Amino acid sequence: MKPATAVVHTGVRKEPRTGAVSVPIYQSATFQHPALGESTGYDYARTLNPTRQALEDGLALLEGGARGLAFASGLAAAHCALQLFQPGDHLIVTEDLYGGTYRLFDQVLNLEHSYVDTTDLAAVRAAVRPNTRGIFTETVTNPMLKVADVAALAAIAREADALLIVDNTFLTPYLQRPLEQGADIVLHSASKYLAGHNDVVAGILVAKDAAIGDRLAFFQNAVGAILGPQDSWLVIRGIKTLALRMEQHQKGAARVAAWLRTHPLVEQVCHPGKGGMLSFSVVDPALVPLILRRVRLCLFAESLGGVETLITYPATQTHADIPVAIRERLGITDKLLRVSVGIEDPEDIIDDLEQALEGGAPQ
Amino acid sequence: MKLGTKLLHTGYEVDPATGAANIPIYQVSMFDQPGLDQPGEYDYARSGNPTRKAVEGVLAALEGGAAAFAFSSGMAAVSTVLMLLNAGDHVVVTDDCYGGTYRVLTRVFRRFGITATFVDTSDPAAVAAAVRPETRLLLVESISNPFLRRTDIGAMAAIARRQGCLLAVDNTFLSPYLSRPLAEGADLVIHSATKYLGGHSDLIAGAVAVKDPALAKEVYFLQNAVGAVLGPQDCFLLMRGIKTLKVRLDRQAATAAQLADWLRSRPEVREVFYPGIGAVLSFRLAAAAMAGPFVDQLELPLVGVSLGAVETILAVPARHSHASVPADERIRRGITDDLVRLSVGLEEPSDLMTDLDQALAFAFAFAAGAGAGRMPR
Asked: For site-directed labelling of A13, which of A170, A301, A321, B170 has its Cα 20 to 30 A away?
């Protein structure tokens, strides 16, 4: 089945009793047992809820994994994946990383870790230690949008007997399926492209291997950071238009990136040629507040992946938890803006950015 | 203001923008910002959502805390409190605690260097004896599960103060209507809000209320950093459930007391556990062989894993709430198949008694027959 077909059929045919095409929202905490020692397969909704399960099974199918799991947020999903490790284990982590994940590693979890440019395979190889048990990377990184070679990282991970975890939030299974390239676990902030409408906070894990999937399900149930039924249903609903949206996001991002490259007040444009994200730096930091105040169509907000175009200032928003020295080295400067290109007509997005940049910074 | 009134009037119920009598469901992930130097009150919904903020305000007001936080499940709330600890820290925990709490301590947090001692917290001397220099938390259930033993929160607070450690009380079984542990000296109150607070078997949720603003900041940091937040629809339903907490619990507790007395008079029942407060009771059947037929014969109670709902829910803890506790540990604690837990709902007491009466009689006869059949010749 082609991805554009698979996404439409997510959560379909899950309700044989009535034939309802859309899975019901099971707003139920508990499930009646037919008799002592018997179960319908559903006992308590933290452990398993049919609506959440439809989403989890759908994602497993889209990512090509054995088991999908849905969480209260992308960070709750990341936290669950990192429960697979214990003190004494070492992880190699992409240095160009979402600030929230960075905060988990640096301020919450007690795991040894090194930040490495995962697009530099020699650097990754050099960072492997005897106790390296995991490699954590984003496949277009955030916010510099560098592309990591998942297959090559998978080979390094295999050799080190480590798990490869790939955050696929920026590309989605429509544009990239890391499990097919050798990753063990795929992570999503489903708040972004999967749900796609800026209306849900949710996270997803998909494990390639059933045994790892079961271990993750143990932690999902034991720690309890699950996704509720209403939000599960909204993510399913979002996924049905994933293919259409990603095509339009990608087209729009390519067009806006090409235009930005011609603008005299723009110093540098990062766009990896796929997906709907781009970042750019302006010639003068004084332009940043001006642009953020002047934009009319683009929303100035901290997220991405929704149908509306969003503009973000990583230095103080998404990446505020990363120390200044590291930010500067990565290029997350006070001149950098990140744009999540929406599905509006690209010419309207360009017009909005053009009027926001017009006249340059006040002298 | 009495708590029954406060349930409806904490000031968080009305939408400030429109005056709507109920807070809107903010089904949104992020918030448009006015400008770089004028950050809005909300930026990203994991960090703050107005619907969640309203129910958190209500929970803080009811428990008398500086702040409260809503989580995706009761276990997410428990886990977040445990994340306040560091490797090497030790916890003293109620021995007949909820099976999920036992599981997360022994199989998740132990791996990160946090150790736990399980003691009967209804015995303050046993708690004091279990405290070690590295004890950083007492985690007690105000009414334990499934034997419904009451823990003296004031005595626990005194031990915690002496030790200089935190006291967290799981107040799920009593709710702030019947017990307010923060007023008795606890630092944190935990709820599976799935139970009495939500009250309708329709949502999974957890809550943590914190007395001290500095500690509340630490809990907020973890709620945001780990991200086990409650979604807006479930926040709304939780707020809706809380409004009827008093009328539900008054009625449920009255029926529970009546049923406890009635069960004590029954020959098919060996022992009844009811602490005289709340609406959950447990009882031991005269024979373990009665459990299956008794459960099958009942018509009214839902059989399943939960409690605190409008419907009466029956559970066999050994098979349900405590199935995650290893078998030998369960048997040591007396959690065997003959033990039944009843979370009393809003049905008419006479209907519940009629149903229990016929099921007890049937199961007793069945077990007697089965027992005779196995008699050696």
From this structure: A170
